Amino acid sequence: MTDSSTRILIIDDERDVCTFFSRLLSRKGYQVVTAASEPEALSALEAAQFSVALVDLKLPDTDGITLLEIIKSRQPACEVIIMTGYSTVKTAVAAMQLGAYEYLEKPFDDIDQIEQLVGRAAGSGASLLRGDNSHDEWAEVAQGVGFRVGSSPSMKRMVSLAYKVAGKDISVLIQGKTGTGKEVLARFIHAASCRAGQPFIPVNCGALPENLLEGELFGHEKGAFTGANQTRRGIFELANNGTLLLDEIGDATPQIQVKLLRVLETGEFMRVGGERPIRTDVRVIAATNVDLEQAIAEKSFREDLFYRLNVVRLEIPSLSARSEDIPLLAEHFVHQINRELKLAAGTLRMLQGYAWPGNIRELANVMRRAVVICNGDTILPEHLGGTFLAGPTAPERGSAAKTIQQPDRSRLQATLLEHCDSAEELERLDAEELNRLLDSLRQAQSNLLGVMRKKKIVPALHALKDSEAETIKEALAQYDGNITEAARALGIARNTLYRKIKELGLPGR
Ligand SMILES: Nc1ncnc2c1ncn2[C@@H]1O[C@H](COP(=O)(O)OP(=O)(O)OP(=O)(O)O)[C@@H](O)[C@H]1O
């Protein structure tokens, strides 16, 4: 039985809702107080301390967000659960961003779920009252997928929200600069959801030409086009009951956008060349490093698709905006290879003073290389490498960088072709600089294709084909010919990669 001193406040103008919760929660041993309006809620808050408040989003004299603010200002330890209908889920999620514990969707048909939710909220409220907020309920799941969260408040708030919405079947849009960990966050959401035992499939919407991506997503029927010798299932079928990550969604072409919208609206799609709709139950997470609102204004992204994808928006801060997390992350990447190695204080200072244009991916690369270079038991600043030492510093330190690593993309792209034109110049760059250059070239290609799409210019096929072959060759070289790893990096299925290697006549293993 629950501690009878645990008080719950129900605020709803519908008498039936108040009666329902009073009965349900009193039976569980809670003390329940009900209020049908703002004045009644205020006097209840004057009279007693509550552990949990269940608040309707729409009331005749006020709204749930206003009540949330009132409750949190008067009783910060009281956890607020917002009650909402399907059409107002977005507002309920916004309430969670403002400090609500969770939301509960009407109609209330899962009694167990309600009891568990109130129980968890009451436990959390009691910890807050004791001043103990050291327990992060998401910590175990994060550890399970190798997701290091750190201690910066912005990141912790975001992950806490991600954990709570993971359990709801709503679309999530992840926004963040390159290498900030969008895919890791998506894996975390999948692992925290009830789909955890089912497939998680990432697909990069910018990596493949439109017709290949369409086949990849929706599959094709036998005979749909020359060479389609057998029916093939697409990712929407393979990910059934699981989660699909649409990475770089901003690069999806208008035709792909229309098809994605249709699946999200109806839960149905057709294979290429197919005549029969196929049902799928897939939770979609989309990720982007471009500003989709701007893309909508420029008419390169559909507003209706954005609306569907953006039920919850999670923004991952850039690494330089959470420099307090750099030591933990740096140690994480070092310990993945060698648990004995320590990091000198000077090294940590250097790492925290750098601007990290490539974010966590770049940090991981720098630390992995440092482990290889270091031959003692401590990683010293010199192990971070010459390029790093001359690299862009965080804004407060100023920069004297002369190598090609400013985060300023436009300047970088202006000098890009100049650098690539001279083999001599390229020879002088080290692996990290070359990788950055390659990154910028890809970005330039993506921008270029975007503009061509907008202008309805069809790129010469041989150009795409070459770049596709090059991309695949690079991925294979990067992962020593390991098909599974290379396919993962490209965001395509292993079988597709095998097929492409064959089609493009590339040397495979
Ligand atoms: N919080 C984190 N904890 C541990 N590893 C992380 C974290 N964030 C990112 N990484 C690592 O950094 C690398 C890049 O992460 P990820 O691919 O998720 O970034 P991304 O934002 O999806 O990149 P892109 O924009 O290029 O698609 C991966 O190796 C990933 O494992």
Show the helix and strand layout.
Blueprint: E1 7-11, H1 15-27, E2 31-35, H2 38-47, E3 52-56, H3 64-74, E4 79-84, H4 89-97, E5 102-105, H5 111-129, H6 139-144, H7 153-166, E6 172-175, H8 182-192, E7 200-204, H9 210-218, E8 219-220, E9 232-233, H10 235-238, E10 243-247, H11 254-266, E11 268-269, E12 278-279, E13 283-288, H12 292-297, H13 303-309, E14 312-315, H14 326-337, E15 342-343, H15 345-353, H16 359-373, E16 378-379, H17 386-389, H18 409-421, H19 423-428, H20 431-454, H21 461-478, H22 483-490, H23 494-503
Parallel strand pairs: 1-2, 1-3, 3-4, 4-5, 6-13, 6-14, 7-10, 10-13, 15-16
Antiparallel strand pairs: 8-9, 11-12
Helix pairs in contact: 2-3, 7-8, 11-13, 14-16, 18-20, 21-22, 22-23
Explain this structure to me?
InterPro entries: AAA+_ATPase, AAA_lid_NorR, CheY-like_superfamily, Homeodomain-like_sf, HTH_Fis, P-loop_NTPase, Sig_transdc_resp-reg_receiver, Sigma_54_int. This is Sigma-54-dependent transcriptional response regulator. It comes from Citrifermentans bemidjiense (strain ATCC BAA-1014 / DSM 16622 / JCM 12645 / Bem) (Geobacter bemidjiensis). It holds the Pfam family Response_reg. The modification 4-aspartylphosphate is found at residue 56. The protein is an alpha/beta fold and 509 residues long. It folds into three domains: 7-129, 3-Layer(aba) Sandwich (Rossmann fold), CATH 3.40.50.2300; 142-315, Rossmann fold, CATH 3.40.50; 319-407, Helicase, Ruva Protein, domain 3 (Orthogonal Bundle), CATH 1.10.8.60. The protein is 49% helix and 12% strand. The chain has 23 helices and 16 strands. It has helices at 15-27, 38-47, 64-74, 89-97, 111-129, 139-144, 153-166, 182-192, 210-218, 235-238, 254-266, 292-297, 303-309, 326-337, 345-353, 359-373, 386-389, 409-421, 423-428, 431-454, 461-478, 483-490, 494-503, and strands spanning 7-11, 31-35, 52-56, 79-84, 102-105, 172-175, 200-204, 219-220, 232-233, 243-247, 268-269, 278-279, 283-288, 312-315, 342-343, 378-379. The strands form five sheets. The protein has a five-stranded parallel sheet with strand order 2-1-3-4-5, sandwiched between helices. A five-stranded parallel sheet has the order 7-10-13-6-14. Strand 4 (79-84), helix 4 and strand 5 (102-105) form a beta-alpha-beta unit. The longest helix has 24 residues, at 431-454. Residues 396-415 have low confidence and may be disordered. It binds adenosine-5'-triphosphate (ATP). The site of adenosine-5'-triphosphate (ATP) has 17 residues, from helix 8 and helix 16.
